[in-house]
Amino acid sequence: MENYINIVREIQKVVNERLKYYNDGLRRLDESWNSYRESVNGLKREWDSEYPLIEARINQLKLSIDELRRRLEELNVKRDIGLIDEQAFTKMANEINAALDEVEKIYDELRNSLSQLENGIVNHWIRSLDVSSMSQEAVQETLKMIDEARSNGQLSDEVYSRLRKELETLLRALQAYEILVKG
After folding, report:
1. 155 backbone φψ class: left, alpha, beta (φ>0; ψ -120 to 50)
2. What letter would DSSP give residue 132?
3. What is the pLDDT of residues 117-138, one digit of tens each?
4. Are the beta carbons of 117 and 109 closer than 8 angstroms?
5. What is the spatial distance between Cα 127 and Cα 137, in angstroms, rounded to a whole number?
6. Distance between CA atoms of 183 and 180, rounded to whole angstroms?
7. 110 has a pLDDT exceeding 90
8. What is the pLDDT of residue 105?
9. CB count, 10 Å around CB of 139?
10. Contact 75/44 with Cβ under 8 angstroms?
11. What is the largest CA-CA distance in the chain?
12. CA 124 to CA 159: how far, in whole Å?
């Protein structure tokens, strides 16, 4: 009988070692998950506060594009009414077009980068949320609240659009989660 107990204790020892291995792994995962969530939330808070400033800077480039286009139109009018000759027109038009091409290229690159970052940050934010503790109704209620805030002039169009996009993404995540849970 003693051999039998020794075998059982050996099995217990081996199983306990494997259970400890997985418990330690689970603890490390929990620590990593908590660290990830804290990092995501910190970055999202910074992004939310700085996004309007970055977007305003990029929009300044759009104003520059509009100004260059206006100058080009003005230049065409001056040529058409004879205020400048064809040679001067060509020289100035080439300079404006070169500047316009460069500014448009920079504007498009920055807009694309901004959009990619926004999508990446929102995707990480959505992943970091505990969707099991949220409801679709709460998100829909928040959507109604921002609709009202916008109609009352409490939110700018830019802030409203960003919030609405984030909440709609969250709503889709909650709907997917519900489908998974219900099976």
Report:
1. beta
2. G
3. 988 998 898 888 877 778 888 8
4. no
5. 19
6. 5
7. yes
8. 98
9. 20
10. no
11. 115
12. 20
Query: Could you give the CA distance from residue 55 to residue 119 in angstroms, rounded to a whole number?
Result: 14
Tell me the two tokens of residue 171: 């709503």
Under a CB-based contact definition with an 8 Å cutoff, are residues 171 and 128 in contact? Answer: no
Tokens, residue 21: 């291995």
Contact of 163 with 157, CB cutoff 8 Å: no
Contact indicator for 89, 78 with CB cutoff of 8 Å: yes
The type of residue at 178 is: E
Strands (DSSP E) found in the chain: none
Q: Which residues contact 99 (CB under 8 A, 6 or more apart)?
A: 68
154 near 95, Cβ under 8 Å?
no
Locate all alpha helices (DSSP H) within the chain, ordered by sequence. Answer: 2-80, 86-128, 136-151, 157-182
Write the pLDDT tens digit of every residue in 55-94.
999 999 999 999 999 999 999 999 999 999 999 999 999 9
Distance separating the N- and C-terminal Cα atoms of the chain? 49
